[in-house]
Design brief:
Length: 101
Amino acid sequence: MITKIKNESFLQVPSELTTPNDLYLAQYLSDTPMAHKEHCVGIAVNMIGSHKRVIIIDLGFTSLVMFNLKIIRKSGIYRMEESCLSLIEIRSTKRYQNITA
């Protein structure tokens, strides 16, 4: 299922923990990046309409789906400009060189 979410207020709602009943979201997540492979390196499930803690990252040779991530530590902050499938224009954002989850 390929879904487009452009509602910024929807994207700002905190995500909830996933349960075994939410495993189907992994398949939904894999469909959208595949349709945008040339410019999508990963998405979170809130970008396709669910408030659960699930993300997918394209590693080039495979995709990695992660459930219920919690950031423990982050360091090396920097700013960059990037686009997003859920937002209309390129924006400045904070990123971190190192993240421990």
